[in-house]
Amino acid sequence: MSHKSAWAFYLLGAALTLAWKCLRYVRAEKKKGRAAHDALAEWFLEDSMANTVSWTTTVGFVWVFGTIYVELRAESGIFSFINVIPLQNSIAFFLGGLMELVAPQVAKQVCAWVLARLPGGGSGP
User: Fold this and answer.
1) 124 lies in a domain?
2) SS3 labels along 1-49
3) Could you read off the pLDDT of 3-17 as tens digits, one per residue?
4) In the chain, how many domains are there?
5) Does residue 37 fall inside a structural domain?
6) Considering all CA atoms of the chain, what is the largest pairwise distance in Å, rounded to the nearest integer?
7) Measured distance CA(27)–CA(36) in Å, rounded
8) Model confidence, pTM
9) What is the pLDDT of residues 57-111, one digit of tens each?
10) Domain limits at 93?
């Protein structure tokens, strides 16, 4: 199986999961009386540090795990454990979706943990 195929299915799983989460958000906001385009704008462009960290970390986390799963399997060393998971399109799709579900929550928890340890408890000026 080619790495291109595994990447395609991994990214497809992540993209479809992201689209599903976005659709759920827009539907929930429409039930509250908000316009769909306003909900979409907020989903992607909310101007807060937590949102920026979440998006950046999510993209990075999904990308790094995909690299470990698809590209680093032949490497010996710290990532050699990944060889126990076969390189298959269906598994790549599943892992892409799973990473898209897990990464934002991990990002938010890590951000909260770091901010709580800053002077002033991360409360700002």
Assistant:
1) no
2) CCHHHHHHHHHHHHHHHHHHHHHHHHHHHHHCCCCHHHHHHHHHHCCCH
3) 899 999 999 999 999
4) 1
5) yes
6) 54
7) 8
8) 0.81
9) 888 889 999 998 988 887 777 888 888 889 999 999 999 999 999 988 887 787 7
10) 3-118
